[in-house]
Every structure is written in structure tokens, then in C-alpha cells.
Amino acid sequence: MKIYTRTGDKGKTRIIGNDVLYKSATRINSYGTIDELNSLVGVIIANLSTKTAVLHDELEEIQQLLFDCGTDLAISAKDTKHEFIFKDDNGAVDWLEKKIDEYSDKVPVTKKFILPGGSKTASNLHLARTVTRRAEREIVKLMQEEPINEAVLKFINRLSDYFFAAARYSNVLEGVKDIQYRNSKPVFR
After folding, report:
1. How many structural domains is the chain composed of?
2. What is the pLDDT of residue 83?
3. pLDDT in tens, 177-186
4. Which residue has the higher pLDDT, 50 or 25?
5. Where is the Cobalamin adenosyltransferase-like domain (predicted)?
6. For residues 86 and 72, is the Cβ–Cβ distance under 8 A?
């Protein structure tokens, strides 16, 4: 099987449902950013320390869910043959919320913004949080142009919160303190 199609030589790509779009299309940007995020999560997994290895399985599950999200975003709005994979009732958002609550209970209380960073794992998780936010912006832009699977948007919105909580928890696991933004007023209650 050849992995090249030559369609991209003219700046276009085929999506699920056989529509051919320019690679600069909003739909391509939305699932392309999800693909970038999935690759970043793979890098995070590959670089987990012995102390943060407890995150391995859940990060791998997030990769699986991100692939589902990307697949759904790659389905043409005109396609009537393919069904969305990602469902609102798949429990993914609830699972993330439980993880967020669990990790929030294990870190020092903060009322101020913190600087992204700390341990290597935490720094990478903060980077994943920002890429997730960019993916969310791309998905919202797509949603303004044509219908999407809104369950994907809900999951991606919660995922950025998960990465924030997991980053803070990683710092606790590594014994590294979060650094508060010096000019932050109390923002978290």
C-alpha cells in the first residue's frame, strides 16, 4: 500500500465522504490541530518519568479519544454514509471531570494564575493545554461555518482543563512547586 496519493501536490486533500478541500480549509485545520495534539501527547508519554508514569494509561486513552475526535471532524458535512464515532454519552467528559477533581484535590490550593512550567512532564502538559485551546478555537471556527459533532467540542473544552490539572499534579509528583504569576490578582475561588 502506498501512503502517498499526489492529491496534496496541488494543495488539496480528500476527507471522509470524498470531498476534496484545500489544505488551508477550516475543517482541515481543525482535525490537523487535533492530530498535532495527539502527537504531542505521544511525546509526553514517551518522556514520562518514573514518578509521572502513573499518567501513562490515561494519556494513551486520551490519544484514542483524540483520534475519534479527529475522525469526526474529518467527516464532510454533506456525508450521509458515515456516522460520528464520538458520542456525548461515551462517558469521556465525565471521566475527564473526575480526573480533574481528583488531581485538584492533590495539589496546593491556588487563587492566582500560575506560570506554565515546572517539571518536564508538567511543562509538556501545559504545552498540550495550549495546543488544545488552539484546537478548540479551530473547531469553533469550523462550527460557525458548517455543522460539526458538538460532542467533540465539549470534550476538547474539558481536555484543556484536564491538562492544566494533570500538569499541576505532575509537579506535585516530581516535588516541584508551581510558580505563581507575580502580578495576578486572586482569580480562582
Report:
1. 1
2. 82
3. 999 999 989 8
4. 50
5. 3-169
6. yes
Rg (CA), the chain: 18
Neighbours of 5 (CB within 10 A): 10
Read off the C-alpha cell for 67.
Answer: 483520534
**Please, are residues 90 and 158 in contact by the beta-carbon 8 Å criterion?**
no
Looking at per-residue pLDDT, the higher value among 81 and 34 belongs to 34
Residue 44's CATH number: 1.20.1200.10
Residue 37 lies in a domain: yes
Q: Does residue 39 register a pLDDT over 90?
A: yes
Q: Find the DSSP H helices in the chain.
A: 26-46, 56-73, 92-104, 120-145, 150-174
Say if residue 173's pLDDT is above 80. yes
Terminal Cα-to-Cα distance of the chain (whole angstroms): 55
Answer whether residue 119 is part of any domain. Answer: yes
Q: How far apart are CA 173 and CA 119, in angstroms?
A: 9
Domain that residue 140 falls in: 12-75+85-180
Asked whether the beta carbons of 126 and 170 are under 8 A apart, the reply is no
Structural domain contains residue 188: no
Tell me the C-alpha distance between 68 and 85, whole Å. 6
Q: Is residue 185 part of a domain?
A: no
The closest alpha carbon to 70, from 104, 35, 46, 26, belongs to 35
